[in-house]
């Protein structure tokens, strides 16, 4: 599935109503869909991981902090771009957030234009990552169509072995390798060796 910016959601988690109210207005005015939550637990109950987007997250909140929410998302393999916001920023907090994958850490007060730029970047990153994951799943489905012998030939081809060398290694004729290679190209929908190599890289065969 191919997602676009209009499909995305900006999730805002901050325990201060005034902050949620002002940022929601700002984000909506910029043309983004936004959902706001007063707590990390409330967000976890409502988050839809199937929808692309980014998370605007306060660092210090009662019950579950922003850093604890980030850890919980990572433990659940829920990979959403996170932009931290904080009125009490500490170097240790920002370092921990970045090590865990945050895309930015903004100190209050921050420029609205900077925040909106980071949100746009986060959404773009998430949409691109989802596209790559979808593409990889599609390619893996094509790979699953290959026979064990075709997989052997594919591994030799992407390891820069010529058809003649592959035939010698597999103890078959050159014509047999040619036939396998043709079927591999057809099943993987690859028009050239370069495209075949690209497919192999996308599926971690290289």
UniProtKB/TrEMBL annotation:
Keywords associated with the record: DNA-binding, Phosphoprotein
Modified residues (4-aspartylphosphate): 58
One BP term from GO: phosphorelay signal transduction system
UniProt GO molecular function: DNA binding
Domain Response regulatory positions: 9-123
Residues covered by the HTH luxR-type domain: 139-204
PANTHER family according to UniProt: TWO-COMPONENT RESPONSE REGULATOR
Protein known as: Response regulator
Native species: Methylomicrobium album BG8
């Amino acid at each position: 599935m191919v997602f676009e910016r209009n499909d995305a959601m900006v999730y805002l988690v901050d325990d201060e109503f005034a902050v949620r109210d002002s940022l929601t207005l700002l984000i909506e005015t910029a043309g983004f869909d936004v959902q706001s939550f007063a707590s990390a637990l409330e967000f976890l109950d409502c988050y839809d991981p199937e929808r692309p987007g980014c998370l605007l997250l306060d660092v210090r909140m009662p019950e579950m902090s922003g850093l604890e929410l980030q850890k919980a998302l990572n433990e659940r393999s829920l990979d959403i771009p996170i932009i931290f916001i904080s009125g009490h920023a500490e170097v240790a907090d920002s370092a921990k957030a970045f090590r865990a994958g945050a895309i930015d850490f903004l100190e209050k007060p921050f420029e609205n234009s900077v925040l909106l730029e980071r949100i746009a970047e986060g959404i773009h990153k998430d949409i691109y990552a989802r596209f790559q994951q979808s593409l990889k799943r599609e390619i893996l489905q094509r790979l699953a169509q290959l026979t064990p012998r075709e997989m052997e030939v594919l591994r030799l081809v992407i390891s820069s072995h010529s058809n003649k060398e592959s035939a010698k290694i597999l103890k078959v004729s050159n014509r047999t390798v040619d036939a396998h290679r043709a079927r591999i190209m057809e099943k993987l929908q690859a028009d050239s060796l370069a495209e075949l190599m690209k497919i192999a890289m996308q599926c971690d065969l290289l």
